[in-house]
Here is the input.
Amino acid sequence: MGFMDQFSLEGKIALVTGASYGIGFAIASAYAQAGATIVFNDIKQELVDKGLAAYEELGIKAHGYVCDVTNEAAVQEMVADIEKNIGKINILVNNAGIIKRIPMHEMSAEQFRQVIDVDLNAPFIVSKAVIPSMIENGGGKIINICSMMSELGRETVSAYAAAKGGLKMLTRNICSEYGRYNIQCNGIGPGYIETPQTAPLREPQADGSMHPFDAFIRAKTPANRWLKPEELQGPALFLASSASDAVNGHILYVDGGILAYIGKQPG
Ligand code: NAP
Ligand code: GCO
Here is the structure.
């Protein structure tokens, strides 16, 4: 086996949740290029179809499922179908996520719960569904998509920060409970990435001006720019491959240095 073979995903089956587009799509596409069979889900058939077409455009024959990751019965049914018709899942990326930017004192308990449900409860549900087969299979890789908000707070994202902080600890607990079965569970903590989720903070406003957050985050990022989904592909491949078999319970921040930086001096 050559040195670089440790980064190969040949023969592996990867489930990436919420991967019709955005970060999940970028990660799944990288895994396909490394040899993995790609399975993804989305809530709506039209988005699954759109995702299948987008993968096809890259020459990737992906498998798509309509499944709401917060629905445990639906997740268990999806995983059973994958295992029956495609094979046991070797790699799980808990990527599906939502955010609601609302001042906490104006946020309803239902809105708070919705964010926790997708961003924290769902990674538990999907991980629980795939772990038994990973144990039978002699091991596996679980990668949770965390956030700057796993470490930092900011106005209007209380539910999201609570969920992503919890997801950091869920990552460490899966590592602690299942490391003995050769299951490595790590997180990726992206910085600020150009996807539909951050479009409201990044794109020109109705009056043509830029959202003040755009200048703010550029000043907080040493590279002075937003990052691209493709910049997560290398770190995600590392954590999915045998190159990271001795890495467990780690959150790999891919943030252009935000967490290390006090921020650009004004003026
Ligand atoms: P995005 O563009 O909003 O995509 C999120 C994906 O998750 C969509 O495909 C969405 O499907 C899917 N999804 C949402 N709820 C779901 C559910 N209940 N069941 C199944 N799929 C569901 O987000 P993104 O920027 O690619 O982010 C992906 C992950 O990275 C999220 O966990 C996010 O918190 C995290 N993250 C993002 C950034 C960033 O700067 N963009 C930074 C750090 C972490 P629908 O379109 O059908 O809703
Ligand atoms: C926000 C952004 C962030 C990013 C990401 C940062 O409103 O602050 O949406 O939360 O999505 O999580 O790592």
